[in-house]
Design brief:
heterodimer, A: 470 residues, two-stranded antiparallel ribbon, two-stranded antiparallel sheet, 17 helices, 5% strand, globular, B: 458 residues, alpha+beta, 5-stranded antiparallel beta sheet, 18 strands
Chain lengths: 470, 458
């Protein structure tokens, strides 16, 4: 038995649980719900076993590597130290698997505590996305770099995983709170704002301001060496840069979609305030949704077809050997692709809500309960983020001599923490403790994405958290 | 006239004060800091002012960017201003709110008046026949014996506050944050953040430190830090497994004051400075190889030679180490030796570090060579840190955790009880509770206490 096969089994289990939950939407017998939750719990146990197995595998690998490097066999305590020093969260693949584990643990906790509709489905989808992203990265076990050989890594990373997962789940709960809160928030506002929000997301997925300059959906430059895909950055002379090239047509479509989303969102917010315009709002939302969905289809088309183009000379001269010609195949940058899929899933859910708003909200408990649940989850997340920041600072102080270096990942964690500080303060402010604080909580999800994956998305230069290079 | 201006002045101060105690200012500042963080993350923060201009030219845009000091965003004037204002905001809020809560804590109002009873969210009422029973029930409800010191009994009003100190959790968090903020300013003002490369066998007194705005300067340690030996252990694929340096500290009279082997995560401390093993760099063309040459007649000599330096033997033959293989055909480290015999015949052969007897057994020449060790000369890269006041920062962290624990995992609940005597056999007992937060939890606790009373009745 190999850890990877256990991971495959748990992935299948999560997919199965989604199917069972879908059955539950159609047939509201309690049995299906229980079966679904049990499937999640069982898959979670398999995943935990997989992680433990990977720890053991990594342990044997570390011992073997250390023995061959030192030239003598290890025994006793020194064997134990080397054997356990490589926990299953030390490179990007492991971190993503581990994040999905954290998401599931928080989802199950929320299930036990509140039994909120939709949260379980969203939690499982998020976990599956993390697993899917993990499958796109290098899964081999490599010896641990010296800087990670520290016991701080345990508490630092465990806290981070649960904190990020709790924040993500809280964002979903807050979204549901806003959807449920029809007294304070009109449907047209939700539609318009979510279109604007989606426009912003698509804009960032398209590389931010570069979208207007290059009309490009950036894909990470990958070269084919033999059978395996390698990141060209590893082969380049200039190690500090990730090379991103544009995927044909997708950039233009994205730009169109961004403009359409913001335009239609603006129209909805400005003109359709009354109840009788509901159908028009829905139609406009359909248009926007179709535009972003087409973007996804075109990206998928390129990914599946693996069409290749010659790399332009201004990028190729960074590569070795510098005389090309360099050809690359398209393979979307997993993070951009994942975020795109996620955006479209959420947009689809909102469309579903617009079409069948009672069907979505009837299953949800009262707004107060939802807001309370979100508050609890964020309190947990905030507390654990504090632990993450503090253990990170202590570790950095003892390993590198600086407790705080404004490294992108540190700063990202601080931004997440501060965002939740805002949230907690809005809860104490009358007038802001309702939809506004829910909005901050939803924003928290994207701050988490920026803070946790910003480096991997190619937005920022990487610092000390080098696992992001893979 | 005079009085009027004074009044105006007071109102201006009052206005300012109101701004500083408002949560809106907090939101605005936190938002500025978050956005600033994200902007700072997207610009390279490791370059200096000059490099920034080199990269961006000196046109208008780059002047604008440099006005906002984006090459060092986290120490720029606007970021510092936001942090400073946030600190002021924190202090003002604490001054505004803390004394009232403190006074209320040391001097609580334990009376359960009728008006108060109606204003409390959780309340209960029952009738008993004698006073002792009423007191027993109240004791059950309050969760403490009436004799307990924490319990106030006034005028037939009973009062108990559980986990009352956790009211101060929020303030402890804010004070901890202020401590961390101010001590980090102190450490950046008085600390040293530098780097030094020391070649094996040499020592250094001056280090390169990073100053404000990323400008680097030379810092005089006042003593020497030297490196005797640097060792790199690598895995088979040559990736570093562990590296360590034997460091020592001397004064200007070359007297050794301290020595220690440092590794990643295991630094050397001296005079407030901490030396961390952070990197290493091979020194070019300084590869030294230890080999042993022996013959059957009892001759045995150890040589530490550089590459391509011939070793001439007594009989006129010579050996030269041509090349070091990190891994020769899966057999580990090996040397390619060039040999010129006494008859001027040239040949080459290999010896292996792992198989010491290989040359003696396989080649069977006049001399047999053993590969003892290959030592690439390295320069060890040390991070030098002096962080005065780090204890305050860590203390602040601890306080922060304590405060947050109090905020999130403790709930101050006030329990009130009152006995009103209607006649000799009719005592009315009123029970009530109030929580600062987490009303659902307070509700649970309240119901649990009432169940205790009901069980007692049964």
């Amino acid at each position: 038995m190999h850890s990877a096969s256990l991971y495959n089994m748990c992935t299948a289990g999560y997919v199965l649980s989604l199917v069972v939950f879908a059955v539950h939407v159609l047939n509201t017998k309690k049995f299906w719900l229980k079966l679904g939750v049990l499937t999640v719990a069982f898959s979670f146990l398999i995943q935990t076993a997989g992680m433990l197995l990977r720890w053991v595998e990594a342990g044997f690998m570390e011992v073997k590597a250390a023995e061959s490097a030192v030239g003598q066999s290890l025994t006793g305590w020194s064997w134990f130290v080397v054997f356990t020093q490589h926990p299953p969260w030390s490179n990007l693949y492991e971190i993503m698997v581990y994040m999905s584990w954290g998401v599931i643990i928080v989802t199950l906790g929320a299930e036990l505590k509140w039994r909120l509709a939709w949260v379980r489905q969203f939690g499982v989808i998020l976990a599956l996305m993390a697993l899917g992203m993990a499958s796109l990265t290098d899964s081999s076990i490599k010896p641990l770099v010296p800087a990670l050989k520290s016991w701080w890594i345990m508490i630092h990373v465990i806290s981070a995983s649960i904190a990020y997962a709790a924040g993500a789940i809280a964002a979903f709960i807050s979204l549901f709170a806003i959807l449920k809160d029809k007294k304070r928030i009109d449907t047209y506002k939700i539609a318009g704002l979510s279109l604007l929000f989606t426009a912003m997301l698509l804009f960032f997925i398209g590389g931010g301001p570069r979208l207007f300059i290059d009309q490009a959906f950036y894909v990470k430059l990958l070269g084919f060496a033999g059978d395996s895909i390698v990141n060209v950055m590893d082969m380049s002379k200039d190690q500090g840069r990730a090379f991103l090239v544009s995927m044909p047509l997708v950039g233009w479509l994205l730009l169109l979609s961004v403009i359409l989303h913001s335009f239609l969102g603006g129209i909805i917010l400005c003109f359709y305030k009354e109840q009788q315009h509901n159908n028009k709002v829905k139609t406009l939302f359909w248009f926007a949704f179709i535009s972003s969905f087409i973007c996804l289809l075109v990206v998928l088309f390129h990914d599946l077809r693996q069409s290749s183009i010659e790399v332009s000379s201004n990028i190729a001269h960074h590569l070795l050997p510098s005389q090309g010609p360099w050809f690359i195949s398209f393979k979307s940058h997993p993070w951009s692709f994942g975020l795109l899929v996620f955006t479209i899933l959420v947009e689809g859910f909102l469309l579903f809500y617009l079409l069948n708003s009672d069907g979505v909200t009837n299953k949800l408990p009262k707004v107060d309960t939802l807001e309370m649940a979100s508050y609890k989850a964020i309190s947990l997340s905030f507390f654990l983020m504090t632990v993450v920041l503090i253990t990170g600072a202590l570790w950095a102080h003892y390993a590198w001599g600086r407790y705080w270096a404004w490294d992108p990942k540190e700063t990202g964690a601080l931004a997440i923490w501060l965002n939740y500080a805002i949230y907690l303060h809005t809860k104490r402010t009358s007038g802001l403790s309702g939809p506004f604080s829910s909005f901050i909580a939803i924003l928290g999800f994207f701050v988490i994405i920026i803070g946790f994956l910003g480096v991997n998305l190619g937005l920022f230069a990487d610092g000390l958290h080098t696992y992001g290079n893979n | 006239m005079r009085a009027k201006t004074r009044r105006q002045r007071i109102s201006l101060v009052d206005k300012l004060w109101r701004i500083f105690i408002s949560l809106k200012l907090t939101f605005a500042l936190l938002l500025v800091i978050i956005i600033g963080s994200v902007i700072g993350m997207s610009f390279d923060q490791t370059i200096t002012f000059e490099q920034f201009f080199e990269q961006n030219g000196t046109d208008g845009l780059s002047k604008l960017l440099s006005f906002f000091e984006l090459y060092d965003a986290f120490h720029s004037w606007w970021f510092s201003l936001a942090v400073l204002l946030l600190a002021a905001n924190l202090i003002a809020c604490s001054i505004e709110r803390l004394p009232r809560i403190f006074l209320e804590h040391i001097n609580p109002r334990p009376y359960l008046t009728k008006r108060r009873l109606l204003s409390l969210p959780f309340r209960y009422h029952f009738v008993v026949t004698n006073k002792q029973e009423a007191q027993k029930k109240i004791a059950l409800f309050l969760g403490k014996k009436p004799k307990s010191k924490k319990l106030s009994k006034l005028n037939d009003s009973y009062y108990y506050e559980s986990q009352g100190l956790s009211k101060f959790g929020v303030y402890i968090v804010h004070i901890a944050l202020l401590i961390v903020m101010f001590s980090s300013v102190y450490t950046t003002q008085n600390g040293v953040d530098g780097h030094v490369l020391i070649e094996e066998g040499s020592k250094a007194r001056f280090i390169t430190a990073r100053g404000p705005s990323g400008v680097s300067y030379t810092y005089d340690l006042g003593f020497y830090i030297g490196c005797n030996d640097f060792r790199l252990k690598t895995f088979i694929d040559n990736s570093p497994m562990e590296f360590e340096s034997d460091l020592y500290v001397t004064d200007s009279q070359h007297k050794i004051l301290k020595s220690k082997t440092v590794r990643v995560n295991e630094p050397l401390n001296f005079a407030g400075f901490t030396f961390y093993q952070s990197s290493f760099r091979p020194v070019i063309s300084e590869k030294i190889v230890d080999i042993e040459i022996a013959d059957d007649n009892g001759y045995k000599e150890r040589y530490a030679v550089r590459l391509n330096t011939p070793i001439i033997m007594k009989d006129g033959s010579s050996f030269r180490v041509e090349k070091v293989y990190e891994d020769f055909a899966g057999l580990g480290q090996a040397l390619r030796i060039w040999h010129k015999s006494k008859d001027e015949e040239e040949s080459f052969f290999h010896i292996f570090r792992r198989y010491k007897d290989y040359d003696r057994v396989v080649r069977k020449g006049d001399f047999f060579l053993t590969f003892i060790e290959s030592d690439q000369q390295y320069a060890t890269g040390l991070s030098v840190g002096k962080v005065p006041g780090i204890e305050f920062i860590f203390g602040g962290f601890l306080l922060l955790l304590v405060g947050l624990y109090m905020c999130f995992f403790m709930t101050p609940i006030r329990f009130f009880a009152r006995v009103i005597k209607k006649d000799e056999h009719c005592y009315h007992v009123f029970l009530a509770a109030w929580g600062f937060r987490n009303h659902k939890f307070v509700d649970t606790v309240f119901s649990k206490r009432l169940t205790l009373i009901e069980e007692d009745n049964a």
